[in-house]
Structure formats: structure tokens, C-alpha cells
Design a protein that fits this description.
The complex is a heterodimer of chains A (311) and B (355).
Chain A lengths: L3 E12 L7 E12 L3 E5 L6 H8 L7 E6 L2 E2 L6 H10 E4 L13 H11 L6 H14 L16 H13 L5 E5 L7 H18 L2 E5 L3 H7 L2 E6 L2 E7 H6 L4 H9 L5 H6 L19 E6 L2 E5 L1 H11 L2
Parallel strand pairs in A: 3-8, 3-9, 6-7, 7-8
Antiparallel strand pairs in A: 1-2, 1-4, 4-5, 9-10, 10-12, 11-12
Helix pairs in contact in A: 3-4, 3-5, 4-5, 5-6
Chain B lengths: L2 E14 L2 E14 L3 E5 L6 H8 L8 E10 L2 E2 L5 H7 L4 E4 L13 H13 L3 H14 L5 H4 L9 H13 L5 E5 L7 H18 L2 E6 L2 H7 L2 E6 L2 E7 H6 L4 H8 L50 E2 L5 E2 L15 H4 L13 E2 L5
Parallel strand pairs in B: 3-8, 3-9, 6-7, 7-8
Antiparallel strand pairs in B: 1-2, 1-4, 4-5, 9-10, 10-12, 11-12, 11-13
Helix pairs in contact in B: 3-4, 3-6, 4-6, 6-7
Chain lengths: 311, 355
């Protein structure tokens, strides 16, 4: 496969370290993101998927582990200049299009903030041209530049958020539930826009969501998280066809599908951690069952799964 | 089957600085005993306002029920006073809200919030009320209800709070339960549990449910009948099979086509509905959906389409069903799910008025 853009190695993010209410939000996850792909990250609320995204982009300082972007560590001590370099390459689209735009700034200033900080425009004229171009890219028009966020609908605001992320020509975008707050008919518009931009600009996405059908549609590979751990990682189609980890199976069985007949006959599986019955000293880690399909399991489970799925 | 609720030509408007917003524009439907009706639509389509009107929970002013009737067991509740409504709310009709975090009282123990209903509507004593509250919490699947009954909402998780809300709503054995996006704020696995629970309780208590949601997967799971709302009107209504396997309105097509399906691996672009819903301060002339509709006919911009009847239970409000309309093909994604249903009339019939 293509080259690795991002390598996440044993990343840990703990909050309230050393105090009794310590939370292990992300607890040692390892995965790679390849250039030009979309990696979907799914899981229930509180499983650490958003924290993973935020730690990768250094909104939080990692407790342990490494995030290598093109071979360089994102975390650790950095000069302002080095930080800027990373910030240009990595951008983020947030979940709530209402809270993530400053209501006191015009759309032009919101979009151009990154351009100003990184000094990407030589003159005022060039700056505005760039803003107009970006607005057009995301399906808005020039006249919108001087308005304020409250004048826009949710879908339009999310487009502004995307334009802001694109302003500094990033290679990698973390989209944290970018469509959850939008209406069904608008969700498809935003997803189509994101796919179009990926084709045109060769972007790499980390797409965090809990809507599994949308994640399957947009992603090349999907990672499933449970309680701060990555439990399964596989190509999108493979994950849906052969979910191996019991948690993934339970998650898939819970999604209601827009088809009354399958709904009437469906059986839901519930997940109980007791099914694993791990012994105390068993080593749990991500193991590759079929090519590209990783499951977090013990040696014994690995052998069982291997026997079951390997042809 | 017995009719529990009949809504006839309901109109609700809100007075705002920008002018009068006509949030609900002539909605009619009925609901039978023990049935689940799902109302789907985008935000601003009037689905929540419709359901809140049934409980008369819209703030008046600025809101106003400007026309129509809401018959509960044949008794019109529109002219009822606030005092009379208090006897109906919680007892005849109750409601589950979207956000379990904000709709429980944080300063009251969960048990007391359940007992409140029982003491008011069933004249129970405090001790009886408490015992019943424990029973109800057990019924909705909360472990250790004897302990939980004395806890505060912040000690409950999201799914548990929604269960507690359901317990409150069901405390007085209401005949009608209105669930306004009860699972939107929950995770899929918890959502599945809550839906199972609601269906189970419906079977036990023979309650009718109005289920408001925008998730078509949930609709397919819970509904007997479906009403699709757009811009304050019902544009299509039918049994769940009719809506999913034989949709007739272009807006319903759009909704079904804009969802990616889990089963097929085709990565073609999603068929998004272009544009945004209209501003209901000045509803557009003709069909409100015309501006976003790729199948719009010239007449859609001039005159509002009437209701056409496609089967005993299936209605759609579109000119495309008129005998003179050109034949159109629905989008690919919808055609794949289409199938012939036996109950369909040979030709759509124009509904004169009401129904």
C-alpha cells in the first residue's frame, strides 16, 4: 500500500493523572494512516475516539506514546516555528458548527485566520481572493464573505468550517463527527463535498463518527474503539462482512437499517466483556487475522479466529 | 380498530419579530389504539410542533393554534383551558423528550419525580407511590431499583436517565405516548435497548405511540405507519412497507436515497437533496418542496398539490400522481428497494378534502 502519512504508536491519554479519579481515555493504541486514505474511527460516546483525534493534533499533550507525522514526532518540546509547521499540515473540522465559529468574526476573517497566522498572502487583495476561492470550493459564494456565522444554516456553517480547515493547504484533516449535528438531507451534501475535496486535493482524513453507515460509506479502513482501546481495525467492507471482535458484532447488530423487513427479523447481540475470559497473564494485543484485518485479542483467541477465518 | 386520536387540519403559527411563522400548515392524521405512528422530517419541518400541540405544550403566546381540531377519544382538546389540560397531561397523554439530561429535574430524587405523577393522577399515598416507583424502575430495566429510586439524575448514565423518563411517562398508564426523538442523544447499542423496551411495554400496556425521529432506520424498526413531514405539511403517509418499498413523493425518495446503505459496497456519490428547507414566514407559492425537487413540474411553482390516495392507507401530496403528469423514474437507490404491493389501487385517487 501507499506510504504511511501518520504513525500512531502506543498512544496514551490519561486525565487527572495521580489522582483517584484518573481516567484512561485513550489507553495504548497503535495504528497507521496511509497517504490519501480515509480512516474511520467508530465507537460509543466515552470510548475515547474524539480524544484520540484531539491528541493526534496536539490539542492535548499525550501522556505516553508517539504520533509520527511523516516520520517526525508531533509531541514533545517544540519551538513556535516547528509547531506552526505541523499546524499547517494538520487541520480539524469540529462537530458542532454552531459552537466552533466565533460569532463576532466575519466569515472572511474566520477563514483567513490561518492565512494571516502563516503569512500565506502577500497583500490584502491576495488574501481576499484566496477567501473567495475557498468559499467557492465549498459551495458558498463570494457575497457570503462579509456576513457573520449566525446568518447561516447548520450545513452552511459546516461548509465554512471546512473552508477554514482548507485555508492553509493541509495534507491531513481530522473530522470529528462533522455531520452528526446536521439533518439527513444536508449530511449527504457535506459528505459528498468532503469526498470531492479528497479526490481533488489528495487529502487524508481521519473521520470520527458514531453513524456507522456513513462511516462505512466514506472510509477505506475502519477502526473500532471500546473503552480507550482499539479493538478491531480492518478495511471497511471486510469489517462489515466479517466482524471478528464480539464488540464489533454487537455494534453492527444494533444499527437500525432503513428496511422494515430486515428490522422485523433482526437479532441484537449484546457485548459482555466476560466472554473473553482472559487469564491474568495473557498478553492482549492487536493481531493480524487476515491480511489488513487486525483484532485486539489474546494468543488463544488469535488461534481460534485464525482457524475460523483464514482460508 | 378503534381510533384514539384524530388530528384534523391542524394549523399552528408563531408570532416573531420577522413576521408570523406558519410552523404547521394543515396537518391531518389519526392514530389507532396500540399503534405506532412515526413522524419523520428535517428540523423545522413542524414535527415537534405538531406533537407538542397535541399536549398543548407550545408557549402561547407567541405560539397559537390557528385552526383545526385535535380529538382525543372524540373530545376536542384545542379549546381546553390550562387547568383542564393538567388532568390530561401525564394521565391520558405523556411525553418522552429528546434530551434526558435537561428534562429531568436535577434537584429532585428520581423516585420523587415518578411519584409526583402517581400522587397527582392516581391519588396514591406516598408509601404506595414509592413502591410503585420501584416497580416502574424495575419494569424499565434499571438494576437495583430500591437503591436507584433515592438517587439524583446526575448519578444516572444517559441511557438510564432515558429509562427513568420512560418510567415517569408510563407511571399513570397513559393511552398515548409521544416520544420526541427519544434515542437521538444515545449510542446505537443503548438506542437498540430503549427501542426494544418501548416495544415491549407497548405490547404489555396497549399504548399508542407517536414516534418523532429523523432516523429512517429507527422508523423501520418501530413504526406501523409513517408520516413524512416537510415545511409544516404531511407530504406522504402510509404503512411502513408502503413508505419504504413503494414511496411516491419525491421528498421521500430524496430522504431514502441520501442514506448510504450498509449492504451494498457501491461508492457512488450520495444523492443529496440540494438546497435547504424554505422559510416558513413566507411559504413559497405552490409546492414548498418545488425549489429543491429535480422532478418539479411547472404547476408545482403555481399551485399547491392536493393529496392523492394510492391505497387504503397510503397518501401522497404530489402532482406527479395526477393522471396528466409525465411518468418519472425515481432515483436508482430508491428503485432498488421498490416492490409491488398487493394493496395498491390501480390508479391514484384524488382525495377531495380531509379524509
Amino acid at each position: 500500500m501507499a506510504e504511511k502519512l501518520l504513525q500512531i504508536k502506543n498512544l496514551k491519554q490519561h486525565f487527572n493523572v495521580g489522582r483517584p479519579n484518573m481516567v484512561k481515555a485513550v489507553d495504548g493504541i497503535t495504528f497507521d494512516i496511509y497517504k490519501g486514505e480515509t480512516l474511520g474511527l467508530v465507537g460509543e460516546s466515552g470510548c475515547g475516539k474524539s480524544t484520540t483525534g484531539r491528541t493526534i493534533i496536539r490539542l492535548y499533550d499525550a501522556t505516553d506514546g508517539q504520533v509520527l507525522f511523516e516520520g517526525e514526532d508531533v509531541h514533545g518540546k517544540k519551538s513556535a516555528k516547528e509547531l506552526k509547521k505541523f499546524n499547517r499540515k494538520m487541520q480539524m473540522i469540529f462537530q458542532d458548527p454552531y459552537a466552533s465559529l466565533n460569532p463576532r468574526m466575519t466569515v472572511a476573517d474566520i477563514i483567513a485566520e490561518g492565512i494571516d497566522i502563516h503569512g500565506l498572502a502577500k497583500s490584502k487583495k491576495e488574501r481576499m481572493e484566496r477567501v473567495y476561492e475557498l468559499l467557492e470550493t465549498v459551495g458558498l459564494n463570494k457575497e457570503h464573505a462579509n456576513r457573520y456565522p449566525h446568518e447561516f444554516s447548520g450545513g452552511q456553517r459546516q461548509r465554512i468550517g471546512i473552508a477554514r480547515a482548507l485555508a492553509v493547504d493541509p495534507d491531513f484533516i481530522i473530522a470529528d463527527e462533522p455531520i452528526s449535528a446536521l439533518d439527513v438531507s444536508i449530511q449527504a451534501q457535506v459528505v459528498n463535498l468532503m469526498k470531492k475535496l479528497q479526490r481533488e486535493k489528495g487529502l487524508t482524513y481521519l473521520f470520527i463518527a458514531h453513524d456507522l453507515s456513513m462511516v462505512k460509506y466514506i472510509s477505506d479502513r475502519i477502526g473500532v474503539m471500546y473503552f480507550g482501546k482499539l479493538v478491531e481495525l480492518a478495511p471497511a467492507e471486510d469489517l462489515y462482512a466479517n466482524p471478528m471482535h464480539p464488540y464489533t458484532q454487537s455494534l453492527l447488530s444494533a444499527i437500525p437499517l432503513p428496511d422494515p423487513e430486515t428490522e422485523r427479523s433482526r437479532r441484537r447481540k449484546s457485548y459482555d466483556t466476560a466472554v473473553h475470559n482472559y487469564a491474568e497473564n495473557e498478553k492482549l494485543e492487536m493481531r493480524e487475522i487476515t491480511p489488513g484485518h487486525f483484532v485486539y485479542c489474546s494468543e488463544k483467541e488469535y488461534n481460534e479466529l485464525k482457524a475460523q477465518y483464514a482460508k | 380498530m378503534e381510533k384514539l386520536l384524530e388530528v384534523k387540519n391542524l394549523e399552528v403559527s408563531f408570532q416573531t419579530y420577522g413576521g408570523t411563522v406558519k410552523a404547521v400548515r394543515g396537518v391531518s392524521f389519526d392514530l389507532h389504539k396500540g399503534e405506532t405512528l412515526a413522524i419523520v422530517g428535517e428540523s423545522g419541518s413542524g414535527k415537534s410542533v405538531t406533537s407538542q400541540s397535541i399536549m398543548k405544550l407550545i408557549p402561547m403566546p407567541p405560539g397559537r393554534i390557528s385552526g383545526g381540531q385535535i380529538l382525543l377519544n372524540g373530545d376536542d382538546i384545542v379549546p381546553k383551558t390550562e387547568k383542564q389540560m393538567e388532568k390530561i397531561r401525564g394521565k391520558e397523554i405523556s411525553m418522552i423528550f429528546q434530551d434526558p439530561m435537561t428534562s429531568l429535574n436535577p434537584t429532585m430524587r428520581v423516585g420523587n419525580q415518578i411519584m409526583e405523577v402517581l400522587i397527582k393522577h392516581q391519588n396514591m399515598t406516598k408509601t404506595d407511590g414509592k413502591n410503585r416507583a420501584v416497580e416502574l424502575l424495575r419494569l424499565v430495566g434499571i438494576p437495583m431499583p430500591e437503591k436507584r429510586v433515592n438517587q439524583y439524575p446526575h448519578e444516572f448514565s444517559g441511557g438510564m436517565r432515558q429509562r427513568a423518563m420512560i418510567a415517569i411517562a408510563l407511571a399513570a398508564n397513559p393511552k398515548l405516548l409521544i416520544a420526541d426523538e427519544p434515542t437521538t442523544a444515545l449510542d446505537v447499542t443503548i438506542q437498540a435497548q430503549i427501542l426494544e423496551l418501548m416495544k415491549d411495554l407497548q405490547n404489555k400496556m396497549d399504548t399508542s405511540i407517536i414516534f418523532i425521529t429523523h432516523d429512517l432506520g429507527v422508523v423501520a424498526n418501530v413504526a406501523d405507519r409513517v408520516a413524512v413531514m416537510y415545511a409544516g405539511q404531511i407530504v406522504e403517509m402510509g404503512t411502513v412497507d408502503e413508505i419504504f418499498y413503494d414511496p411516491r413523493h419525491p421528498y421521500t425518495w430524496g430522504l431514502l436515497a441520501s442514506m448510504p446503505s450498509l449492504e451494498n459496497d457501491d461508492k457512488a456519490e450520495l444523492a443529496a437533496i440540494p438546497g435547504t428547507p424554505p422559510d416558513l414566514t413566507n411559504p413559497p407559492k405552490g409546492d414548498a418542496f418545488a425549489a429543491r425537487n429535480q422532478y418539479a413540474l411547472a404547476i408545482d411553482f403555481e399551485e399547491e398539490p392536493p393529496m392523492f390516495q394510492i391505497s387504503e392507507t397510503h397518501f401522497a401530496k404530489t402532482w406527479l400522481l395526477h393522471p396528466d403528469a409525465p411518468k418519472v423514474e425515481p432515483p436508482e437507490a430508491v428503485k432498488r428497494r421498490m416492490r409491488q404491493l398487493s394493496s395498491t389501487f390501480e390508479n391514484p385517487v384524488l382525495v377531495k378534502e380531509g379524509k
